[in-house]
Write a structure and sequence with these properties.
- The chain starts with a helix and ends in a 5-residue tail after the last helix.
- 45% of the residues lie in helices and 15% in strands.
- Strands 2-1-3 form a three-stranded parallel beta sheet, sandwiched between helices. A three-stranded antiparallel beta sheet has the order 10-4-11.
- The relative contact order is 0.16.
- The protein has two domains: 167 residues, Bordetella uptake gene, domain 1 (D-Maltodextrin-Binding Protein, domain 2); 133 residues, D-Maltodextrin-Binding Protein, domain 2.
- It is of the alpha/beta class.
Length: 350
Amino acid sequence: MRVYMQVVGQVVGAVAVASLTCFAASAQEDVADFYKGKTVQIIVGTSAGGGYDIFARALARHMGRHVPGAPKFIVANMPGAGSNVMSAHVVNAAPKDGSVIGAPFATQPLAAVFENVAKLRFDPRRLHYLGSATTGHYLCVVRPDAPATRLADMMTTEVVMGGTAENGSTGYLPILLNNVIGTKFKVVFGYPGSREITAAIERGEVHGMCGLGVTTLAGQYAGLLKDGKIQVLAQESVEGSPELNKQGVPRTGDFAKTDEARMILEIIYSQGVFARPYFVAEETPSARVTALRKAFDATWSDSETLAEMTRFGHEVDPTSGEDVQKLLARIYASAPDLLERAHTTIRLKR
């Protein structure tokens, strides 16, 4: 009887393995059949020419060869409301079959903390994130002739900062510092993206901006830094970048006066893990989500993609879609009153 049961167990196990193998192969074939001859659209929630746009266009040039069926990829731009216009379009109007990918601001995955979900017309907690192309260390920068050029002095001196919208990183990050550590930033909204804000800094319309990524500064705006037209004010971080810490660049977290203030900064700054996020709609079939996640990871480890991004001066440091989802789950599991306080600290006081 024991021998009989062992034989039966081996047969059942072999059948189960074979069934799973056949199922996986069938799912792969179904994905390939769907994407063959298709065009996948990546919709960027910012204006053309900025860091988000550059990453998305690099993804579009290389991701197709890693997706079963080798579809073509194209990029479109849909700026507005801190990329929430684009996200609402992908969730509510665009096809939900895996043929449309959203490329939002880093703020979007935390939009349920930043915004009233009912007003968003989408719930970021229900989306499938493919991953993030890089991690992000954000900076505040100012003109050298700004009324103050040290963060400590901005607790008493008003400095004008440019921003996209109140719910965009260049908008809410200086507001956060006003409400948590006591800076006196005056934020001017309405710029489509970082490119337009930096142009406004050059023209003297504003003194600076917060929410500028280290890689974007090193890539697109290195000339402004080299020519002394802008200077780094502070790292928007609690822990900071090891390299920038060595250079003595101040961290905004060092100005937090209470444990709660520090925790709020940690929640808001956690977006640095998903600095260049990508997502598909909740209804996207699971096999296609899996295939897109694998292709996303493969693209950002592809030698051609990496060489291209190096030429652009952008650092690639990807995070998988699964890890992005886990981090978001941990954040949204925080105490409701702490999340509510985090929400109020990024709003303008009216």
